[in-house]
Amino acid sequence: MSIESCVIYEKKPLLSVNEAQERIYAALSPLTQSEQIPLKQALGRVLAQTIYAPISLPFARNSAMDGYAFCSKGLSSDAPFTLTQIGAVFAGSPFKGALKEGECVRIFTGGVVPDNADSVIMQEQVDAQNTAIHFPAAIQFGKNIRQIGEDVRAGDPLCLAHKTLSAIDLGFLASAGIEHVTVIRKLNIAYFSTGDELISLGEKLTTGKIYDSNRYSLHGLLQHPNYNVFDGGVIADDRALLKQTLQQAAEKFDVVITTGGASVGEADYVKAVLDECGSVNFWKIAMKPGKPLAFGKIGGCYFFGLPGNPVAVTTTFDIILKPALHYLASATHQKPLLFSAICTTPLKKSRGRQEFQRGILTQTPEGVLEVATSGHQGSHVLSSASAANCYIILDKDVTHVDCGDKVSVLLF
Ligand code: AMP
Ligand code: MG
Fold first, then answer.
1. What pLDDT does residue 60 have?
2. How far is the CA of 222 from the centre of ligand 2 (A)?
3. Measured from the CB, is residue 296 less than 6 Å from ligand 1?
4. What SS3 class is residue 316?
5. Average pLDDT for the chain
6. Which of 49, 56, 114, 137 is most exposed, with the fewest beta carbons within 10 Å of its own?
């Protein structure tokens, strides 16, 4: 990369984070291929098709509590009355037969309410003397029965296509007897570190070398039920090797991620190689940390060249890559929840880029959200990122934040 062309690039206004996100969404084609898997393996997977209820829920009228069931026809709640208990209904074993006038059955939660019964009265409200059950005045008829289909009617949608299945969804689908689900196939993702200075854990550290931490951050960030992940190791700062490695990876994976080498230094080849063997959509954004961020395609594979600095890696992943991968995995888009919090430490910032400073969000006993900086904000400083639990998002034109100012916060 010659000095002149760098200057030309710098003169162009950098893409905002929002613009970069829009360009990514416009370029990505969400996966459509699907596979059928057992319900138990579906946690966190994305539904490929809407699932409709094969049955109504509840499937049968059943009792909402332990008590006594009877038919209120001909009875008055103005005065106490007595009914004869003729049997008991446990969950799982319905009462065989019909209730006649003057009769009731003992019933337990989930027990099927006899056809002609319309009321269940809680056991604590009655006085039971053997089979003589005394009901007090002013009890309410027609209550405590769970009606057929009051939760879901047969044919209703249970979970919509593109929903990411939660633990609750697994239970919900199981309650309707769904054994298998059709989900979007997993994304195949490879990631590499780049840099001659990197050594692996277990190797002896010498001056000038550093441990490759980015692959560990990415390993953690990419743990997801929708991803098959391949750790490709470290690529040396060698243009030909980088090109060959990326081309080979692009043939096998849906997404290739690198860290480092995305800037404009002498040994930063990512952008040039992407230009050569694929197409660059953009390679810089107005974000801090994370200005050098390349996005493009190599053949049919999407490529993200993240910065090298460790905090820039985790931040660009959270803000740019994570939503992009969800989108690519065909999951319904959910806007992240931002909170407004009172900043309890002054913050400094230079104009020009949107910043994602690392902070510690707490709540006062009165419920007020407060946030403080987690310390040194250098994009190489993992200690303050490790101490943090949120990003403090500062817009590009902000230059400082005073104690007591409100700021926007995104939880990690
Ligand atoms: P680069 O973008 O390659 O110039 O890297 C920017 C900074 O991030 C340099 O200080 C690199 O040493 C550092 N860095 C790059 N890759 C890694 C990595 N995998 N683990 C830790 N630090 C890294
Ligand atoms: Mg490097």
1. 96
2. 22
3. no
4. helix
5. 95
6. 137
Closest to 375 measured CA to CA, from 367, 383, 363: 383
Identity at 336, one-letter amino acid code? P
Distance 283 CA to ligand 2 centre (A): 15
| Dist CA 244 CA 251 (whole Å) | 11
HEC sequence for the chain: CCHHHHHHHHHCCCECHHHHHHHHHHHCCCCCCEEEEEHHHCCCCEECCCEECCCCECCCCEECCCEEEECCCCCCCCCCEEEEEEEEEECCECCCCCCCCCEEEEECCCCECCCCCCEEEEHHHCEEECCEEEECCCCCCCCCEECCCCCECCCCEEECCCCECCHHHHHHHHHCCCCEEEEECCEEEEEEEECCCEECCCCCCCCCCEECCHHHHHHHHCCCCCEEEEEEEEECCCHHHHHHHHHHHHHHCCEEEEECCCCCCCCCCHHHHHHHHCEEEEEEECEECCCEEEEEEECCEEEEEECCCHHHHHHHHHHHHHHHHHHHCCCCCCCCCEEEEEECCCEECCCCCEEEEEEEEEECCCCCEEEEECCCCCCCCHHHHHHCCEEEEECCCCCEECCCCEEEEEEC
Centre of ligand 2 to C-alpha 305, Å, is 12
The predicted-structure confidence for 90-130, as pLDDT tens digits, reads as follows 989 898 888 999 999 999 999 999 999 999 999 999 999 99
Take atom 11 of ligand 1 and give the residue whose Cα is closest: 308
pLDDT at 294: 96
Q: 22: which 2 tokens? A: 């829009």
The alpha carbon of residue 163 and the mean position of all alpha carbons in its chain are separated, in whole angstroms, by 10
**Residue ranges for the chain with pLDDT beneath 50:** 1-9
Asked if residue 155 has its Cβ within 6 Å of ligand 1, the reply is no
Strands, E assignment, 344-405? 347-348, 354-363, 369-373, 390-394, 400-401
Query: Is 214 a pocket residue for ligand 1 (Cβ < 6 Å)?
Result: yes
Ligand lying nearest the CA atom of residue 210: 1
Q: Given this model, what pLDDT does residue 313 score?
A: 98
Query: If you write DSSP's letter for every residue of 249-284 in order, what string do you get?
Result: HHHH-SEEEEES--SSSTT--HHHHHHHHSEEEEEE
The reported pTM is 0.92
